[in-house]
Design brief:
The protein has 194 residues and is mainly alpha-helical. The chain is elongated. Helix 4 packs across helix 6, helix 5 runs antiparallel to helix 9 and helix 6 crosses helix 8. The chain has nine helices and no strands. It has a single domain, classed as Tetracycline Repressor, domain 2, CATH 1.10.357.
Length: 194
């Protein structure tokens, strides 16, 4: 018999697969249970419902993305926050191409109209803005970067451009040359740097 933590993780993996392929509204708890090899009743021992399970899958996707991006960014020399931005965007694009299901879960955090999921997405967005802004603020204070805008606004714009990149890759626009990660980086630089 699987330990509770293992069973919970199995459910999250199964749900991530279903949410990643069918989306929040197309996913059904019975199908998630079948994919996880558990009864629907078992899912409800670990999660209050579909909403809570989706939020947990979103947390798992964010954590995978952060881990991959940090390993990619930390392995490269960084002269300022914007060299890290270029590495982050490259890493993000690679993550989305390899993990389309996780990318869909992340993208659906914006599209789902459920107020709890919407608030969770907004909370995560604000948390990410704060982290990125603090990195940019350090570079501004050290004289490495001069901005046209406030660091917090630059961080918000960065995340908006990252979202554009995700949708472009999910729609395949990056494959036909209409949307390339370097274009996103150049637009971002022009928007925020002096």
């Amino acid at each position: 018999m699987a330990a509770p933590a293992d069973k919970r993780e199995t459910i999250i993996k199964a749900a991530s697969k279903i949410f990643g392929s069918k989306g929040y509204y197309g996913a059904h708890m019975d199908e998630i249970a079948a994919t996880a090899g558990v009864s629907p009743k078992t899912i409800y021992k670990y999660f209050d419902g579909k909403q809570a399970l989706f939020i947990e899958c979103r947390h798992a996707a964010v954590e995978r993305l952060r881990t991959e991006m940090m390993s990619h960014v930390s392995g490269r020399p960084r002269s300022d926050a914007f060299s890290a931005v270029r590495s982050a965007i490259e890493s993000y694009g690679e993550f989305v191409r390899r993990n389309q299901g996780a990318a869909r879960i992340l993208a659906e955090g914006v599209a789902v109209v459920d107020p709890v999921i919407r608030r969770e997405h907004e909370r995560q967005f604000e948390e990410n803005v704060a982290v990125i802004a603090s990195i940019i603020e350090t570079d501004v204070a050290d004289g490495k970067v001069t901005l046209k805008t406030e660091p917090r606004d630059a961080a918000s714009q960065f995340l908006a451009f990252m979202s554009t990149l995700v949708y472009s890759i999910l729609l395949g626009l990056d494959r036909n040359g209409r949307m390339k990660p370097d274009v996103v980086v150049d637009i971002f630089y022009r928007a925020v740097r002096q």
